[in-house]
Amino acid sequence: MKKIYLAALSLTATLLCGCGPMYNTEYIYTPPKSDVGIMCVSNCASNKSNCRREEDLRNENCEYRAERDYHWCLSHQGKDDKDKCFKSYCSPNYSNCDSEYNTCFQGCGGVVTPHQVCVAFCN
Question: Which domain holds residue 115?
């Protein structure tokens, strides 16, 4: 048993040490100089807000269905089969909203500059 524990500990340490840095892409937004461009960017921001609200609603619906389906499964399984039931994982995905915003922002004359930011295993 002690050998298995040591092997598992060693494997875990090796995997953690082998992980390189993890990065996220963040953006620097340089707004357009014209008043028309600024109004255009305001419209982009409004569209992004609406997109995120719609994504939040999709996520809430997903969570509701997952909860409902999980409880239905529990009520229809025999007591020895309860482990067959699992709850689905829901999470909002804003990447499309952000991508559309960046495209819109640039279309208004603004500049979007991506840069990498280390978020884990940074040196």
Answer: 35-120
